[in-house]
Amino acid sequence: MTQLGMNQQPGTSAPLDIRPLIDPEVSALLAASPVDIGATLSSLTVENVAMIREMFGATPPPPLSDRVTREDHPLDGRGTASVRVHRSTTPVSNAPCLVWMHGGGLVIGDNRMDDARFDKWCQEYGIVAISVEYRLAPENPYPTPLEDCYAALAWAHAHARELGVDPARIGVGGASAGGGLAAGLALLARDRGEFAVAFELLIYPMIDDRQITRSSSWSDPIWSPEANTFGWTAYLGGAKGGSDVAPYAAAARATDLAGLPPTLIVVGALDGFSDEDIDYAVRLRHAGVSTDLLVYAGATHGFDTFGDFTAVSRRANRDIEEWLQRQIS
Predict the structure, then answer these.
(1) 269: Cβ–Cβ under 8 A, 6 or more apart, which residues?
(2) Which CATH number do you get for residue 161?
(3) Which of 42, 129, 134, 155 has the fewest CB atoms within 10 Å, measured from its CB?
(4) Residue numbers annotated as active site
């Protein structure tokens, strides 16, 4: 079967120059940035990854309200892995819950990246958010980060009563590498059969280590093919691109998608992940999974993080939140 977007190796024709197609507001913000994020991430190596983590970790945190509490809890037996629990100060019972994985190409980032997201969502939608501090590659390759996320899902179910969470409404989600981990986690939870997943929210998920689609060759200004190669190699080592990669590591590898929970996939039309994400949404639908796919013209990787500064990011964030509300209502 020929899969959408999967029928051409990137080297068989000149990669598309996406620069003229980028949304003007997005392009202006990228040009105004004092740091060339794409160039920095394209330079990732085993030798400099710790330094680049420190550089991104030094970004001042956004202002947060006092109407949401944030508590960190270790995941017993999982080394430095932990969870950060976000809850509204207004008491809740039988609340929906979202177990969330942060982005960063599997090699950088931490769960503080999404504090502002949950400062808003916990107040407005009454959710309890559990943001996972999973261990990073290359120091901790597959399956360690995914098993950290599975332990966080187990922790959410084990502590549901004390957190005021409805165990039947625990979903998973994430952005970029976090979206890929969430997709793998949903597959793993389905196959192990220990814990239910109510929905999966996948924002431009990183799900295909093979880099065989046309869009995987595009020079996305945030996450380039070079950065993507480093991230996947750090995670999978020499197995990257080979025939033995498990679908839990790279969800695009999965051949059986039946029985997965309702899914939203969000991606920019110019994102290097767009082909693999669109293809995954098509195959989810063919497997009978309730699937929503949102593709945004002119948008690159990470475009939703521009918040109120671009019309396309405002629209995407509104659409994501409306979908989330439908899942938890």
Answers:
(1) 295, 296, 297, 298, 299
(2) 3.40.50.1820
(3) 42
(4) 176, 271, 301
